[in-house]
Amino acid sequence: MEKKEQSTNQNRIMLTVSYDGTNYSGWAYQENVPTIEGALNAAIKELTGEELQVIGASRTDAGVHAYGNLAVFDTKSTIPPDRFMYALNPHLPKDIRIVKSQKVAPDFHPRHCDTIKTYEYHVLNTDYEVPVKRNYTYHFGMKLDIDKMNQAAKYFEGEHDFTSFCNVESQALTHVRTVYEVNVRREQEEVIITVKGAGFLYNMVRIMSGTLLQIGRGKGEPSDIKTILEAKDRTKAGPTAPAQGLFLIQYEFPSGIPE
């Protein structure tokens, strides 16, 4: 067990966090409700004795999963930055794990820098539901035209106003976002929608996925995506796909991570 020794120097540590979001009410801390952020805060306090709140890169919704979300925090602990992952994991529930820890610049903020985020939306495309996959896929029993979905996906790429693909409760100052790549593939019984972008709006990937599924089942044409984007009207897009099919895969830093 690592000691709770502290020094007068302070380091900013970035954690790469993997979690199964099934039992959590999302990332953001809520009093008396299980959240990823709450679990991380509690684990750090147990380990170092410091009362703090981590800063998350992406505030994923209830039921959403992650392989590589990010969190930063400031600490006076003498634990080496790359050892924090080993020290913290025993203090966390088994459905949350730190997969990497590193020192970053004192002013580094994961939401205030250039990043590329990759999401995947997993669809179980079978005639029947598979119970062991119920928390990690959205069951969609209708036949899907993957080629048609890929044609539609290309209309998302580039810089657009994504008002039509954003939850109406969004408080974002602008709905303009840049999407670098969207593709759809089939892997056995699953259809996987991959989306890469510089940033995303509230429920944006889930609404994009729900709309692509509608086109894939034959309700609409690929070019409808262009029309829906131009409408800037949430009612013109498809339904919001359920949370459990969504995975935050990774963050990339085109300009590197300042240390």
Strand % is 25-35%
Q: Unreliable stretches, pLDDT < 50, 5 or more residues?
A: none
Helix segment count?
5
Largest pleated sheet: 10 strands, mixed
Task: Please bin the fraction of helical residues.
Answer: 10-25%
Structural class: alpha+beta
How many β-strands, per DSSP? Answer: 10
N-to-C order of helices and strands: EHEEHEEEHEEEHHE
Rough shape?
Answer: globular
Q: Please state the average pLDDT score.
A: 94
Give the termini separation: 27 Å
Task: Output the radius of gyration.
Answer: 20 Å
Descriptive account of the structure:
This protein is of the alpha+beta class. Helices cover 18% and strands 31% of the residues. A hairpin with a 2-residue loop joins strand 8 (176-187) and strand 9 (190-197). Helix 3 crosses helix 4 (204-216).
Which helices and strands, and how do they pair?
Blueprint: E1 6-19, H1 36-48, E2 55-56, E3 65-77, H2 84-88, E4 96-104, E5 116-124, E6 138-139, H3 146-153, E7 158-161, E8 176-187, E9 190-197, H4 204-216, H5 224-231, E10 246-252
Parallel strand pairs: 3-10, 5-6
Antiparallel strand pairs: 1-3, 1-4, 2-3, 5-9, 5-10, 7-8, 8-9
List keywords for this structure.
about 260 residues, alpha+beta, ten-stranded mixed β-sheet, globular
Task: Summarize the entry for a quick read.
This protein is α+β, with helices and mostly antiparallel strands and 259 residues long. Helix content is 18%, strand content 31%.
